[in-house]
Amino acid sequence: MATSDSTPLLHADGLHRTIQGRTLFDAFALRLAPGERVAVTGPSGSGKTVLMRTLAGLEPLQAGDIRFLGRPLGSWRMPEYRSRVMLLAQRPTLPEGSVEDAVRAPFAFRAHRGRAYRPEAALALLERVGRGRAFLDRATETLSGGEAQIAALLRALLLEPQVLLLDEPTASLDAAATAAVEALVAAWLEQAGGRAYLWTSHDPAQVARVSARRLQVGPS
Amino acid sequence: MTSAAYLTIGPVQLVLAALLLIVNLGLSAWLRLGLERSLLLAAVRMVVQLLLVGLVLQFVFALNRPLPVLGIALVMACLAGIAAVNRTRRRFPGVMWDSLLTVVTAAFLVTGASLLGILRVRPWFEAQYAIPLLGMVLGNTLNGISLALDRFMEGAASNRAGIESDLALGAGRWEAAHGLVRDSLRTGMIPTVNAMMVMGVVSLPGMMTGQILAGAKPTDAVRYQIVIMFMIASATALGALGVTLLAFRTLFDGRDRLRTERLVRVDGGRRRG
């Protein structure tokens, strides 16, 4: 993986999506370099979620070109691609069981072979948001919306993706949970070079906090 | 069938039996259930369908040739394949073909292997054995297929967020779906397992009862029942597995995406047979 600074991590060009006659985005272009913090903004219903899902390869691509590390999306095995370019949905979905079961489960996927779940890595991240061992033992059904999003983010971060696609991760969270999510993402970004994220938000204050650059989707 | 070992039923007796429906009609009229029309229609349909099938089967039995037996078997299998899909709450393009392919393969494989390898019927197309055995296998396989298919489609639709969150974390399509596949197979096989559990204790199965009525020794009749239950169990398992895998191929595409937009809800599609 020789990623020089001139090669973007994620590169998209001419992305187009029409759903039932309504064009969500057209000729959308993106260049995400290592270390970059980019916000994606637009009114609600403007297609931010579809765009993020498209970049994660969960939506069919109607037109355009997506490249990761210089290689076109079509040449990546999708599980491999998604283990590096990881989407965090607005509403977290966790399986039944403890938080620790939930964050450990994806390590069994083939795309993550060679990696193992390390409780100390989970604890180190949790410590940054003032939580500890007890949080890992909680049953996922008893988590509040904010706690569930923290657990979902923890699950993603432990898999050490290179690019995070954060789709309104704090849209329905209170101030404390929002701060925790922002702190965890910041910690992940600093942890290693060559990482970057896209963050959709409709809160201008948050956009100012978490991004150095803005991209607009839909009518501006 | 000149010297039948059972009482034959004449037209007068059929009419007498039909009089039993007066109980239903009376109840419906008295309690204003409004069921009179459907009751009569259902009764007439049942009588006409069965009398016609009796004639067709009699004809095929008399021919005693492989092609007509195979033809009628295929028609039965196709009707079963269609009926299986008609009971599900959702559809996707090609679901009918998936169901037909699965029903025909599972039922023909199991019935064929049993006729040739277990019962050793000679010739194999002896309609007296082939048609009723296939009919029993089809009736149950269709249930298994329809339950498994319904569970799979409902699960894909209702747990879309959970499945996609696994996919987004790097799961392959099989890794993301295998819990749902397992649930669907279990759902498809539950009726057969339950039936075997209580067979002979709570329920006396129809085929065994029929053989006893026709003069067979109860000890012989139960042996047939045992064989048919094993046939039903394996055909149902094959059918549930086959249809679930085919549905999996449609709802999870080669780029490891969940394609729930291919599912169409059918309102009022949940008719109970």
In the residues of chain B, how many domains can be counted? 2
Supply the number of helical segments of chain A: 8
CATH C-level name of one domain in chain A: Alpha Beta
CATH superfamily of one domain in chain A: P-loop containing nucleotide triphosphate hydrolases
Residue stretches of chain B low in confidence (pLDDT < 50, at least 5 long) are 269-273
Structural class by secondary-structure content of chain A: alpha/beta
What pattern of helices and strands is seen along the backbone of chain A?
Answer: EEEHEEHEHHHHEHEHE
* Total of helices of chain B: 10
The greatest interface between two protein chains, and residues involved on each side, is: A-B, 28 and 16 residues
Radius of gyration from the alpha-carbon trace of chain A, in angstroms: 17 Å
CATH topology description of one domain in chain A: Rossmann fold
For the largest sheet of chain A, list the strands in their spatial order: 6-7-8-3-9
Question: Any descriptors?
Answer:
heterodimer; A: 220 residues; alpha/beta; Rossmann fold; five-stranded parallel beta sheet; four-stranded antiparallel beta sheet; 9 strands; B: 273 residues; mainly alpha; two-stranded antiparallel sheet; 10 helices; 2 strands; globular
Walk me through the structure.
The complex is a heterodimer of chains A (220) and B (273). With 220 residues, chain A is α/β, with parallel strands linked by helices. Chain A has a domain at 10-94 and 160-216: P-loop containing nucleotide triphosphate hydrolases (Rossmann fold, 3-Layer(aba) Sandwich), CATH 3.40.50.300. Chain A has helices at residues 48-55, 78-84, 99-104, 119-128, 133-137, 145-158, 175-191, 204-210; strands at 10-19, 22-32, 37-41, 63-68, 71-72, 85-88, 163-167, 196-200, 213-216. In chain A, strands 6-7-8-3-9 form a five-stranded parallel beta sheet, sandwiched between helices. In chain A, helix 6 (145-158) packs parallel to helix 7. Chain B is mainly alpha-helical and 273 residues long. Chain B folds into two domains: 10-63, no CATH class; 65-265, no CATH class. Chain B starts with 10 loop residues before the first helix and ends in an 8-residue tail after the last strand. The relative contact order of chain B is 0.13. Chains A and B meet through helix 2, strand 6 and helix 6 of A and helix 7 of B.
